[in-house]
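fyi for ur records
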Amino acid sequence: MSSLTAHEKAIFGEAPERCPETGRAFETGFGALSKEQQTASFIRDRDRAGDMPIDGEACPQTGRAFEVGSGAQTRTLQTARFLREETSEVKPSANSRVRRPLNLIKDATAS
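which gave:
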């Protein structure tokens, strides 16, 4: 930040101290989190951004296209969901029943 606007000065101070892990400026003033909390948040944001899929990218394990854009989950979470959905389609749950058409049930009770 070479020249700060008045708004940026209010948030970050005149000469903002920067996070040693990410280089982002620490917020200062009333309501600002501690530097340790801000550092943890900066690291989470950086790691999450590194795991976000890009447009047109597909999951290597399932071949399904990753969702991208606002609200999209990370590659890790989407891959886990894809794998869960794939196994639930193949394996019926313990509580599932075999469903028969109603006409077969009526025929079985009539005889």
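Helices lie at 6-12, 35-50, 75-90, 102-110. thats all i got for now
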